[in-house]
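Progress report, Aim 2. The chain analyzed during this reporting quarter is listed below.
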Amino acid sequence: MKCHPRGGCLLALGLSALLAFPVSAPARTASAAAEATTPTGFRLDPDGTLVHEGSGTRFPRTLAGFTRVTEQGYDPSGQYVSVEYRAPARDSTIVVRISLVHIEEMSARDHYEIMKWLARRYFDESTPVSEGPVLLPDMPEDSVWRGRFRGNRQGRPFEFSLTTVDLGYWGARIATAYPEAEHIEAEQRLDAFIHGLRALAPSRNAR
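Predicted structure tokens for the chain:
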């Protein structure tokens, strides 16, 4: 599924991947994920690392304190996939879902602008908190863009962030949900996660 520069396929496929956060639903364990049938577009290495075959991006069982719990392919070509990780945070759980999609000639900011309206639908009466570039070590300026939103989820104050990452031939968006009271810890841990994921991602020319 080759996406055109302005991201028409992002809109067509984004809703199911972005809004399907099972915040309170039981998560599969990493061992259960390893035993399940590997979705189209992935392979499972003997050490339990999930590899996206199209890009070569590696998703280990654990990364920066997060544990992989599930994965899904959205098209037969394997060019639109998502992987979910979770991590404990005091009295709750930080949920992170990474979607990898083949897009060309699109900046992280443009990717974010196209998808942020879907992010706002995740909460009841969501309110934007901030949006802009994120500077991370060893990553090019403007290659990471993030928006934070505040709202209620099942009567509890929550925050939701949408982070987009320019990987060249591939683009990633990382949707994260966490209780509002834990937003500082959640963002710090998310940045560490993204930095670790980038080290396992393909080169900018990988196809």
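Residues 30 and 69 are 5 Å apart (CA to CA). Residues 1-35 have pLDDT under 50 and may be disordered. These observations will guide the mutagenesis work planned for the next reporting period.
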